[in-house]
Give the backbone structure.
Amino acid sequence: MIRASLLAMCFLMVNVDHSVAQRGCGSHARMKVKLESTWNEVKRGAYYETPRTLIEVWSTGDGGTWTIIRVYANGTACVIASGMAHRAYLEGDWT
């Protein structure tokens, strides 16, 4: 169930304007603390985008907020997309 939800959120990344997304950048360590303490999000998955960049998917467990960040090898992280009211989709349930 979580895997399908992550795939759905990653699908949203295709249409993100990366020049706009770059505005929300900072230290990965600080961003992690902010996502955990302020938004009560936990990391649901991490995927290599390139050998030097990682995509992390964060969300609350109650259908609240979600955040997708890009983490660079130098420790910088940038918000790619975020939103509210996420729903975990089961495979084949795209309606």
